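Journal club prep — side note

Before the paper discussion, L.F. wants everyone to see what a predicted structure for a comparable chain looks like in token form. Sequence:
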Amino acid sequence: MPEQSNIQSNIAWEIPELVKHKRSLSWYIISFILGALLLVYSIATSNFLFAIIIVLIVVVMILSAVREPKNIKFELGLTGVKVDTKNYNYNQFKNFAIVYQPPEVNSLYLEFKMPFRERLSVPMGEMNPNNVRTHLAKFIEEDLEREDETLSDILSRILKL
């Protein structure tokens, strides 16, 4: 029987279900003005669907600002990844990448094999990226070419969305 003592059975940490950015008063003022201008434009051009979308975005932003995100458990096990109650087998993933640029970025990216599945972007917080890399490298190929976070993560962080 092979020696199993050096294989850690799982690595787990808690992640917020969504990143809650600290937004200044000026951010809210600029957002309100931009939203109002877009709403006026959509009504002026009789694009009522766009107006409804703007109103829905505002409602979602207000609700997300008021509500505290819950923490969910993220776990790397011996057979796959568990995000809260959802399980993914390692064979569903094409590769993984870790982007570590302290103090702002410490993220794990898991790319699905299915072309239309969005990649999992997981903040690692205080987790040691080397421990995560060592564990995942046993099961999935590492994407060594990815050195930066995704464009969507960059924009989300800069624009505080």
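L.F.'s comment for the group: Confidence is low (pLDDT under 50) at residues 1-6. Keep this in mind when we get to the figures.
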